[in-house]
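Methods — Computational structure assignment.
A single polypeptide chain was analysed. Its primary sequence is given first, followed by the predicted tertiary structure written as structure tokens.
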Amino acid sequence: MKDTTFIGHNVRDEFGDYTDLQSCKNRCLRDCSCKALHFYGGGGYSKGYCLLLNEVLSLVTMDEGSNNKSIYLKVQNSSTPPSIISILKTSHPWVQQRHAKMILGTIGASIAVLVIITIYIVLVRKKTVQPEDEEVFLDGLPGLPTRFSYQDLSAMTESFSRKLGEGGFGFVFEGALCRGTKIAVKCLKEVDQIKNSFMTEVATIGSIDHANLVKLLGFCATKSQRLLVYEYMVNGSLDRWIFNGKKEHGLNWQAKKKIMLDVAKGLAYLHEDCNHKIIHLDIKPQNILLDQNFNAKVADFGLSKLVAKDQSKVVTTPRGTPGYIAPECTSLIITEKVDVYSFGIVMLEIVCGRKNVDWDQPEEEVHLLSVFKRKIEEDKVGEMFDMYNKDLEVQKEEGIEMMRIAGWCLQSEYTKRPSMSEVVKALQGLATIDNNLNLDYNFNSQEGEGAPDPTSNTVLIPSILSGPR
């Protein structure tokens, strides 16, 4: 019969000592250099030869005529189950060899499974804690406004029952703080998609305070909810007052001038007076709000870009609203002059009381910039002003000057556009447009091959555009 034994180094002589099995075990346990024992006994294992081994090299199969041979490995009781010892001390070494391989294979497979499970748990945990990490990040930002719970805002808005407006971003509801101060609560939808814009808005305007910027009073950020709490603006957004076509709900000329100056001051502050230069990237009438005295304030900073003071340009994805996007935005390298361009569009819309792109107009007048360009070429800007301001008591020269400032802001080459602080001075009558600027009034031209026409209803990917506010 084939038998299996260890090949190793013997602690004792070649034949071993003649003793009983238990004594042989005890001697191996007391001997620090003993790694295994080989007991070759007579019938019943009463006594036999005890061979102690101080090193185990391999398992081999040998031809022997007796089955009274046992092999024992010395192991630590604290880490090795008794079942392994019992398997190893079988009197049939070929069974022992088979079980040893099974045990080693089982241990290896178990370790692999544990590693896979551990990696899975780590990855799942990392994914699930992201909202909590975001909340920790928000809590760590300095100068943030008040953080409200969702339950608090639900109570303040009477369960979100008084809706002020809605758009692609979500809904706005009227509410009131405990002391009676009215608030506007913007509830953002598609939380996962707007996480970055939400954090941008909180971080951007949470710590700034300017008379012509809508103040962010607080916010709510949970795993499933994103809400922004603003000061309440009684007269809503500017588009309601300049695009309604009703004289009784329109604005007089002095109010229009005041609004243009207010917006210019707000943008000048963002570009030049903040710790970081802030490019709004979404200036349009819907994002200009009016208080009870028709003071204008710039709102909605969800697409804003923060730029270091010493940084002249920044690379970003195209963003904004069709009809207000500056030509250079297609190159992805922008400056604060993109806001100047958008402000020029808004100026024209305020002065003319109509949208930049209005499909209700005759075909040749659908695009306001096309009309403006044509009137400049014909030297009939005054005629264009009269066409849209028949019922306003205003000096035509003053109106024409406003349109010239708008044209200055709308230069296709951004380096020719003024800064917003220069626009403020021009609107205040403290500066005039330099006739040596060689301004280009070909508003349809664009920088970059294949760029879209700024007067067209440009269609861009919805995910990178601002929705209505």
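Note: Confidence is low (pLDDT under 50) at residues 1-14, 82-88, 445-469.
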